[in-house]
Amino acid sequence: MALKFPSPTEIGGISFLDSSKADLFKLKGGFTLKRKENRVTFGRKAHCSAQAPPPPAWPGRAVPEPGRKSWDGPKPISIIGSTGSIGTQTLDIVAENPDKFRVVALAAGSNVTLLADQVKRFKPKLVSVRNESLLDELKEALSDAEHKPEIIPGEQGLIEVARHPDAVTVVTGIVGCAGLKPTVAAIEAGKDIALANKETLIAGGPFVLPLAHKHNVKILPADSEHSAIFQCIQGLPEGALRRILLTASGGAFRDWPVEKLKDVKVADALKHPNWNMGKKITVDSATLFNKGLEVIEAHYLFGAEYDNIEIVIHPQSIIHSMVETQDSSVLAQLGWPDMRLPIIYTLSWPDRIYCSEITWPRLDLCK
């Protein structure tokens, strides 16, 4: 009996209602399924698919390639979602490190007032507002600005910001699957991706990852947990990664009694105990849905099997994630719950940038 699966699928077990079928099943691609107590298990663990699994962005290790730097002066970046949580924190980093980074293009959704302020301060060459009906309002807000950037509204503007010729790295801080098209455009233009939009890999991993390899583009995780894993695998020998331990704060409802959950309001879900994030990810954190998405993202980023990715509740949000190596050592990345840290590492990798204690307090484990 041959089984054909129309799309890439991870299969842990298959049930057959008809117990009269043979005890051995063949999958296209040479994989074998064996019946065991009315269940079917793999003869060997494999990715069961009509096509090969996509190559991970970082297959269990991260080693910088020599000679990748190709710009003079501050690193030029584009930001998709400049008025959101990731975008504004990225611009905080740029403002504090003008000798390290400069902004060449900005894209926002509908917050014209904030976008205009950002344009006046950071002087990008290109600006996009996704809501085309706000174009005139943006032009009016910039009427007194000394610097007049090119403005392209709508989805096309988003794509042009992503593939701006001067940008070396594109920060994808836009929420949801809307980030997929501009990310693909940036990759096709050869831009490294500071990935804060997890839907890019969750929805498009099998397409995006081969595309990134084709164009020699680095996908650098800006999410705190995946940045922690990325930092932990720096310089690991090939094949050294054994297991990924994703930490989770538990979200706003971690300590709530079950009987109280039926009465929760949106405002309750938005009260994250540790992190200052956008509304969607804060709600997803409260329901732990976000952690499920992060498991999928970790699988695509680092090539770990799903069985080798575990979630650990860590209410303090000091350990941002861990990796276990083949010799059972566990490596962890620690820091205050501040999204600026993974963002600045993503932008500066493989370097480390000095951060002032005034705006970046040092971690104190005795507090």
Radius of gyration from the alpha-carbon trace, in angstroms: 23 Å
Low-pLDDT ranges = 1-50
> How far apart are the first and last residues' alpha carbons, in Å?
62 Å
Structural class, judged by helices and strands? Answer: alpha/beta
Shape: globular
**What percentage of residues falls in helices of 4 or more residues?**
25-40%
For the record, the count of structural domains works out to 2
Strand order of the main beta sheet, please? 9-8-7-6-10-11-12
Number of strands: 16
| Tally of individual helices | 11
According to CATH, the fold-level topology of the largest domain is Rossmann fold
SSE pattern, N- to C-terminal: EEEEEEHEHEHEHEHEHEHEHHHEEEH
Q: Could you tell me the strand content as a percent range?
A: 15-25%
How confident overall, as mean pLDDT? 85
CATH class of the largest domain: Alpha Beta
Q: Assembly state here?
A: single chain
- Largest pleated sheet: 7 strands, parallel
Task: Walk me through what this model shows.
It is a single chain. The chain is an alpha/beta fold. The protein has two domains: 75-222 and 338-348, Rossmann fold (3-Layer(aba) Sandwich), CATH 3.40.50.720; 224-334, no CATH class. The protein has helices at residues 85-96, 112-122, 135-141, 154-162, 180-188, 199-214, 224-232, 266-269, 279-287, 289-302, 340-348, and strands at residues 2-3, 14-15, 24-27, 31-36, 39-42, 75-80, 101-108, 126-129, 150-151, 169-172, 192-195, 219-221, 241-248, 309-313, 319-325, 330-334. A seven-stranded parallel sheet has the order 9-8-7-6-10-11-12, sandwiched between helices. A hairpin with a 4-residue loop joins strand 15 and strand 16 (330-334). Helix 4 (154-162) crosses helix 5, helix 5 runs parallel beside helix 6 and helix 6 (199-214) packs parallel to helix 10 (289-302). The longest helix has 16 residues, at 199-214. It is globular. Mean pLDDT is 85; it is low at 1-50.
